[in-house]
Specification:
heterodimer, A: about 675 residues, alpha/beta, Rossmann fold, Helix Hairpins, about 65% helix, B: about 100 residues, alpha+beta, Arc Repressor Mutant, subunit A, about 40% helix
């Protein structure tokens, strides 16, 4: 490990104490260096009057024992934490002979920012550049000589964990004690427009500031809004002087940006002089792909193409499997169980065969569709692409004027609307939060997409793909339209952007993808075994009693009661019942359809029955309403929990009921105009 | 540089990729992170953890939008940054 020295001239200040201080950000390897330097000669206590631990030990320098103080790890020297106050108080009051500043070669920028603040208080600094081995492994090349020249400080390269460079570090400290002029740092310079304000404030505080405080440092901290220095200034100055100073500070409240900016520019200039980072091939690939994937036009086009590919493949591969499962597993199972239960009461046979096997079995036959769909989505997710979808969706939401913090939880709703509703906790304003909660159920969640993936091919066969894409588009259009409406009326927040980290693209890992598929299918089967079983039993009971026949059931009576509304959307009472049952969980709509259309002598399974009894216009209206229908029970419960009452869940249900019914009517009437009615 | 970060965030129409912004400003992602941390300490930007408020931290790997969520797939603790009111004012304020 080498010691690098800057060019020299002039002299540095005299120390007040013969202590050496060890300083750096947390996790930079300070404790390792401290233990290596001091061995067992350590004392551990607390800083006076503080709860922060203080470690000091003894090192031998030029044949004499010298105290080494390990200062708390910190990222800056603004009085935001006890550690920060301890470090800056120590540097000002103790003025150690030499500060050993440990910097992280892997993340040098953050270390250098702290150093820029340290240099405002102390100039006799040796920089220990630690983690050189890790930096090398990451392809980061830090030139210690260039760094020393740029900083005006001696720099020693270190690998603290195997004590490499420790001897050179001690030698550098010794050399600096002998020749303090080795340090010639050039700290950050605040730009002119704020420099004048800085000087004026320094002059105001200079007569009152006690030693050892530097008025320029105090002035900087006052402009940064440092709470401790403000308290001191108020204490040191007369009320009139403080009021005048406070007025001036208020007038220059954005000077803090010039002060922070000067430090950041200084860090950047040092890094530019001394650090070379590789442009990884993976990063270049990511950049090239992202030029299309996140482009304002290319991005949505690529998303549409990929979505079409995923759905198309799902339909092509999985539908034959679904039909096979239905014909070879569910229907023979139903026939077998029916024969077994022949001696049992009729209601028991009906419940098990028509309710549970037909209802839950119908749902389970769609597992292949979901398995293929989630595998393809899992591949896209693991490749890193889906994060770009979040970015595109966020842009869309900003385009309709939604507040940045609203867009974030709504994006989470792609997975589950419950997460979306709970995610609105990041919004401080209650009004904006409530409005975001109202919009959250309009984001097409994975459950609704699964229902769409299952039912669209049944209703529309070869046309399933464009219909599915169109319905997702309708969902987003309604979300955008409502968002725009609310933004223009009650939702007048500022729209601001988010800064997010898009992961690098990578080849998907089969194991990760399979885990993703497994987690989804497990959740689906769990629902089928719990919520959907109970719902199927209830739906069967409602469709079987009081009878005789399904047309005289309680469910039929309820459905017939809603017939006038259903007629406008082209929905018969069975489809309305399926919609209502989706309140329990979106997937329950499938089992309900299975039960209601699977009853009767000539039943051939849902996939075969539905297209023959529901015309395309009604099917389209049904799917449109399903995509926009009232939130599921879990989402309503989440809304109640987050809003603390039933009022907002009721508003949400009413709003979405209105939106979905109006959309259903519009879609059905539009489809009739296009000649899609009566084909069933 | 620091005012440029505010201006870019203010002008962006939606989410911005950190790596891309760093490249546009000709700085390293680490430098941008440092700038954001300092702007956050000064109250001009605000760090938000996407998942912490909404999800059980251990469930990120099971989440259907694990990598698609605005957390960027980094799991719990991944920070997103957005402008505060002071940040928006500073970004749109004319130079002195």
């Amino acid at each position: 490990m080498a010691v690098s020295e800057p060019a020299r001239s002039g002299a540095a200040e005299e120390p007040a104490t013969a202590e050496i201080a060890l300083l750096g950000q947390p996790n930079v390897g300070k404790s390792t260096v401290f233990n290596t330097l001091t061995g067992l000669r350590q004392h551990i206590g607390n800083w006076p009057g503080k709860t922060v631990g203080r470690k000091e030990g003894w090192i031998e320098l030029e044949g004499r024992q010298q105290r080494l103080v390990d200062l708390p790890g910190t990222y800056s020297l603004t009085a935001g934490s006890e550690e920060e106050r301890i470090v800056r108080d120590y540097l000002q009051h103790q003025q150690p002979e030499v500060v050993v500043f440990l910097a992280d070669a892997v993340a040098l920028e953050r270390s250098l920012y702290l150093l820029s603040e340290v240099l405002a208080l102390h100039k006799r600094v040796v920089v220990g550049l630690n983690r050189m081995d890790v930096a090398r492994r990451h392809g980061i090349h830090v030139d210690p000589q260039a760094l020393a020249q740029a900083l005006g400080l001696p720099v020693v390269t270190l690998i603290a964990r195997d004590a490499t460079g420790i001897t050179e570090l001690l030698a550098s400290v010794e050399a600096l004690r002998r020749e303090p002029q080795r340090c010639q740092p050039s700290p950050p310079q605040v730009r002119a427009r704020s420099a004048a304000a800085l000087e004026r404030i320094a002059e105001r505080i200079r007569p009152a500031a006690p030693a050892p405080y530097d008025p320029r440092w105090l002035a900087q901290k006052l402009l940064e809004g440092d709470p401790q220095v403000r308290d001191w200034a108020e204490e040191w100055l007369s009320p009139a002087e403080w009021e005048a100073l406070d007025h001036e500070l208020h007038h220059h409240e954005e000077a803090v940006l010039d002060i922070l900016g000067a430090r950041c520019d200084w860090v950047q200039s040092v890094v530019q002089a001394a650090v070379e980072r590789p442009r990884a091939g993976q990063a270049s690939w990511t950049d090239r792909l992202d030029r299309v994937a996140t482009h304002s036009v290319g991005g949505p086009a690529l998303l549409l193409a990929l979505l079409a590919g995923v759905l198309g493949l799902t339909f092509q591969i999985a539908l034959p499997l679904q039909g096979w499962l239905d014909a070879t597993v569910v229907q023979p199972a139903a026939a077998g169980v029916e024969a077994l239960l022949a001696p049992a009461p009729g209601w028991l046979s009906g419940l098990v065969v028509d309710g549970l096997i037909t209802g839950v079995g119908t749902v389970l036959t769609f597992l292949p569709i979901l398995a293929i769909f989630f595998t393809l989505m899992g591949l896209l997710e693991d490749s890193g692409y889906l994060a770009r979808v979040a970015l595109l969706l966020d842009r869309f939401m900003h385009a309709v004027g939604l507040h940045g913090k609203s867009a974030l939880p709504l994006t989470l709703g792609l997975g589950c609307n419950v997460v979306s509703v709970v995610g609105t906790r990041i919004i401080e304003s209650r009004r904006e939060r409530l409005l975001t909660i109202l919009l959250a159920p309009l984001v097409p969640c994975s459950a609704r997409l699964a229902v769409l993936a299952v039912l669209a091919p049944i209703f529309f066969g070869d046309w399933a793909l464009p219909v599915t894409l169109g319905l997702i588009g309708l969902n987003l259009a309604v979300l955008g339209g409502l968002g725009l409406l609310l933004h223009r009326t009650a939702f007048r927040g500022e729209s601001s952007a988010f800064l997010m980290e898009l992961p690098l693209y990578q080849r998907p890992h089969l194991r990760t993808t399979m885990y993703h598929v497994y987690a989804h299918l497990k959740e689906f089967v769990r629902k089928a075994g719990t919520v959907i079983v109970v719902a199927a039993a209830a739906i069967w009971a409602l469709s079987a009693f009081p009878g005789p026949g399904i047309e005289n059931s309680a469910l039929a009576q309820l459905g017939h009661g809603l017939a006038p509304l259903g007629d406008l959307m082209g929905l018969d009472w069975r489809l309305i019942a399926a919609l209502l049952s989706s309140f329990v969980a979106k997937e329950v709509a499938i089992s309900t359809l299975g039960i209601l259309y699977g009853l009767g002598e000539e039943a051939q399974g849902l996939a075969a029955t539905l297209p023959s009894v529901v015309d395309p216009a009604s099917g389209l209206a049904f799917l449109a309403v399903t995509m926009l229908f009232i939130p599921c029970m879990a989402t309503v419960a989440a809304i109640r929990q987050e809003t603390g009452g039933w009022r907002w869940p009721a508003v949400s249900v009413a709003l979405l009921l209105g939106v979905s019914v109006l959309s259903g009517i519009a879609v059905y009437q539009g489809a009739l105009l296009l000649g899609l009615g009566g084909g069933a | 540089m620091i005012r440029q970060v505010l201006a870019e965030l203010s002008a962006a129409g939606g989410a911005v990729d950190r790596r891309r912004l760093a490249r546009r400003l000709a700085i390293s992602p680490q430098m941008l992170e440092t700038v954001l941390e300092r702007l956050s300490a000064a109250g001009y930007v605000e760090g938000i953890t996407a998942s912490s408020a909404a999800c059980r931290p251990a469930a990120c790997h099971e989440c259907p939008v694990g990598s698609a969520c605005a957390g960027g797939g980094g799991g719990p603790g991944q920070q997103l940054w957005c402008l505060t009111e002071a940040g928006r004012r500073a970004a749109t304020a004319p130079p002195d």
